[in-house]
Amino acid sequence: LAQLFRPLDMLGWVYRTIRQGLIDMEAMFGIVDTPEEVRDLEGAPALHVEAGHVRFEDVRFGYDPDREILKGIDLEVKPGTMVAVVGPSGAGKSTLSRLLFRFYEPTAGRILIDGQDIRRVTQASLRQALGIVPQDSVLFNDTIGYNIGYGRDGAGQDEIEGAAKGAAIHDFIASLPQGYAAQVGERGLKLSGGEKQRVAIARTLLKNPPILIFDEATSALDSRTEAAIQETLRSVAARRTSIVIAHRLSTVIDADQIVVLNEGRVAERGTHAELLRRNGLYAEMWTRQQTEREDEEAEAAE
Ligand code: ATP
Fold first, then answer.
1. Does the Cβ of 94 fall within 6 Å of ligand 1?
2. Is the distance from CB of 182 to CB of 169 less than 8 angstroms?
3. How far is Cα 126 from Cα 133, in angstroms, rounded to an integer?
4. Where is the ABC transporter domain positioned along the sequence (predicted)?
5. 127 burial class (0-12, 13-18, 19+ CB within 10 angstroms)?
6. CB neighbours of 247 closer than 8 A, spacing ≥ 6?
7. How many angstroms does the Cα of residue 151 sit away from the middle of ligand 1?
8. Which of 50, 147, 172, 207 has the most CB atoms lying inside 10 A of its own CB?
9. Do residues 248 and 215 touch, judged by C-beta distance below 8 A?
10. Taking a C-beta distance cutoff of 8 angstroms, is the pair 299, 220 a contact?
């Protein structure tokens, strides 16, 4: 009998792994065209993550052969540190995370995790190691508890609540008449952008991946929600390798390293203070965002 169940068990595992991969992909890439299929090499081993060291080596990429988007990117995220990627709209920030997820392959150069070329390992193992909090999180037409529990198969209610607490969304859920059984999605409760992102953070906390990619929402959030998300992000990112794609520079002033992308190249890199002293593109973006913020605050006060 055991012999009969082993393949079934295996099938279950394959199904769960694929399902996890799919939810991440849908969540993150629901907005882009379906790319050509990226396949595992024959006999590819699983990715073995120890420290969680991420490295882009002279990575080039274009969605179309005649338009290069990334023009030779070198990037290192040391284990347990946070690197923020900033830069003008269309600079290629989200493209970097799509390549790390191996949704597309670089046309030249390579991406390594703990020394292993991500092209040479199984995709299931790669996606298991990465946690993604996308810009616009997709919620299923199901309960809010289910939407969080999706982060890990077999998660119990206490674990789901623990993750919700970590993502600062538990109090909100507890205040709903149906609590964790409240229906969300198209036919249920409509959550705000900030609430949806916190559900995605809770899902990621439950998955507990060694490497985290956080794609900050471009949509404007009220300053209280923004502060709450930043606070949660800090705790989620602590002690794991994190890449934060940020639109608001104020989100990432504490990052260990800030990489400024411009037209597919790294224009500047350093800490917030170093980049301000440099008085280049980052300093210019910072001044502009500060002025915008002051204007908004002045308007709100009127
Ligand atoms: P933003 O700050 O606006 O989110 P970004 O820096 O993240 O921008 P990307 O999303 O990486 O920019 O896009 C970089 C460039 O690649 C853009 O010019 C965009 O139009 C192009 N691009 C993105 N996705 C695709 C796609 N699926 N097919 C073709 N071109 C694409």
1. yes
2. no
3. 16
4. 54-288
5. buried
6. 86, 216, 217, 218
7. 27
8. 147
9. no
10. no
Residue nearest (by alpha carbon) to ligand 1 atom 4: 89
- What is the ipTM, given to two decimal places? 0.96
Yes or no: say if 37 and 100 are a contact pair by the CB < 8 Å rule.
no
User: Is residue 260 within 6 Å of ligand 1 at its C-beta?
Assistant: no
pLDDT 10s digits, 178-221: 999 999 987 788 888 888 888 988 998 898 899 999 888 766 66
Residue nearest to atom 31 of ligand 1 (CA): 63
SS3 271: coil
Give CA–CA dist 122/48, Å, rounded. 10
Is residue 175 packed enough to be buried (19+ CB in 10 Å), middle (13-18) or exposed (0-12)? Answer: exposed
| pTM to 2 decimal places | 0.83
Which atom of ligand 1 is nearest the CA belonging to 35? 27
Both tokens assigned to 175 = 């205040």
Q: Among 94, 98, 265, which is best to mutate for testing ligand 1, by the most ligand atoms less than 8 A from CB?
A: 94
Residue whose token pair is 């065209």: 33
